[in-house]
Amino acid sequence: MSPIVTVLICLVAMYVISETLRLFKIPRVISYILAGILLSLPPIAPLLFLPETLSVIGFLSDIGT
Q: What is the model's pTM?
């Protein structure tokens, strides 16, 4: 899977979870943390974060620092 697709899936998941939890008046920061936890669960993480995409995402995170 392309790194761009992986980032796009993560962003869409974060948006959907934040909008859903907004109905319950839960802050966006908490919903983003919850989305990160859900995306890193063992059944989901190997499908979404392949080794070749992890290296590109790691590089992108290094650019931001």
A: 0.75
